Amino acid sequence: MKVLVIGTGNMGAGFVKQLAAAGHQVSVTARDQTKAHAVAQQFGAVAVAAAGSAAAVDAIVLATPYAEAVAALLAVGDLTGKTVIDITNPLTPDYMGLTLGHNTSAAEEIAKAVPGAEVVKGFNTVFAQVLAEGAELGGGQKVTVFVASESDRAKQTARALAESMGFRVMDAGGLQNARYLEPVAGLNIYFGYGAGLGTGIAPTWIHKN
């Protein structure tokens, strides 16, 4: 697939690395184009300017902080019918709480702001270190990626990308269920950092394919 990654932080760089390694045609854009070029060169992708970069791709990975997400999406052009994989979590500055919850989620707010896009919540429970190192947990286990969306087509696109990178995928229902997935990410951060259990604590559920 042709995939645009927005963002060059730890998660963005991890996506560029793993998607390119899985054989996808990856382009990357960011506010800091110098960093975008560096990440692209490192992992065999192409750095592109934001304007119009959504036009020719099959999917977009939104790998920015939540506060920057809508502006970043609006900068890449027409999103009508585009699969947008939202990996954001609406974290407080200390990373120990969420700024949204109960009656909405980051994913739902993003979907409202870009109504033409087909938004999928996914990968938000996966640590950047885990993404960069790969999906294998050892002992035959793989990290689980949860996908939630109102669009079955977009969900299948996200599933295909996740599976191509070696992840197991669990269908988490409609986009409203991002209200559950985002707190799971918060719990994961607590276990990984607050409780000192490390980033390998990424959640996985036993399930039948």
Helices and strands in order, then pairings?
Blueprint: E1 2-6, H1 10-21, E2 25-29, H2 33-43, E3 46-47, E4 59-62, H3 66-74, E5 83-86, H4 106-113, E6 118-122, H5 128-133, E7 136-138, E8 141-142, E9 144-148, H6 152-164, E10 168-171, H7 178-194
Helix pairs in contact: 1-2
Describe the structure in your own words:
With 209 residues, the protein is an alpha/beta fold. The chain has a single domain (2-201), classed as Rossmann fold (3-Layer(aba) Sandwich), CATH 3.40.50. Helices cover 36% and strands 19% of the residues. It is built from seven helices and ten strands. The chain has helices at residues 10-21, 33-43, 66-74, 106-113, 128-133, 152-164, 178-194; strands at 2-6, 25-29, 46-47, 59-62, 83-86, 118-122, 136-138, 141-142, 144-148, 168-171. The strands form two sheets. It has an eight-stranded mixed β-sheet, with helices on both faces. Strand 1, helix 1 (10-21) and strand 2 (25-29) form a beta-alpha-beta unit. Helix 1 (10-21) packs parallel to helix 2. The longest helix is centred in the C-terminal third of the chain and has 17 residues, at 178-194. The radius of gyration is 16 Å and the shape is globular. The chain starts with a strand and ends in a 15-residue tail after the last helix. The mean pLDDT is 94.
Main-sheet strand order equals: 3-2-1-4-5-6-9-10
Shape: globular
What is the mean pLDDT?
94
What is the count of structural domains?
1
Strand residue content: 15-25%
Separate helix tally: 7
Tell me the number of strands.
10
Assign the structural class, choosing from mainly alpha, mainly beta, alpha/beta, alpha+beta, or little secondary structure: alpha/beta
Helix content: 25-40%
Main sheet attributes: strand count, strand direction, barrel closure: 8 strands, mixed
Radius of gyration computed on alpha carbons: 16 Å
Unreliable residue runs: none
From the 3D coordinates, which CATH architecture would you assign? 3-Layer(aba) Sandwich
| N-end to C-end Cα span | 23 Å
**What's the CATH H-level homologous superfamily?**
NAD(P)-binding Rossmann-like Domain
Q: Can you tell me the CATH class?
A: Alpha Beta
User: Which fold name corresponds to the CATH topology?
Assistant: Rossmann fold
What sequence of helices (H) and strands (E) makes up the elements?
Answer: EHEHEEHEHEHEEEHEH
